[in-house]
Design a protein that fits this description.
The chain has 5 helices and 5 strands; from the N terminus they run E-H-E-H-E-H-E-H-H-E. It is α/β, with parallel strands linked by helices.
Length: 111
């Protein structure tokens, strides 16, 4: 596994957050960019596991999947409209700088 967390942002996460992370050199994909927007959550989870990406989402349904024991490479969750763009970018950048992908396996961080 690589030494740096790679993120995947759900379709509800604003593009300004994507830009902010990419400007910092962080590897980011998005649900629309990967063609997952019209597919179900199972397809999204399969992609995340195959690509070993930490999932950034506002969708609490993924917290349920985590609680039910579904394996993943990390989830970063925050409720819709609860954080500014700057707060999300800052928090995810900090996570990127101090955590390893191995530390995030099957873990949830709340922003």
């Amino acid at each position: 596994m690589a030494n740096e967390i790679r993120f995947h942002l759900d379709e509800h996460i604003g593009h300004a957050i994507v830009r902010g992370l990419r400007q910092r050199g962080i590897d980011v994909t998005t649900t629309p960019e990967t063609g997952l927007r019209t597919l179900d959550d199972d397809a999204q989870m399969t992609y995340l596991r195959q690509e070993k990406r930490l999932f950034v989402t506002n969708d609490a349904g993924f917290l349920v999947r985590h609680a039910q024991g579904e394996s993943h490479f990390g989830i970063a969750y925050y409720p819709p409209n609860s954080r500014s763009i700057g707060e999300v970018v800052t928090f995810l950048t900090l996570a990127y700088e101090i955590l390893t992908p191995e530390e995030m396996v099957n873990q949830v961080i709340y922003l």
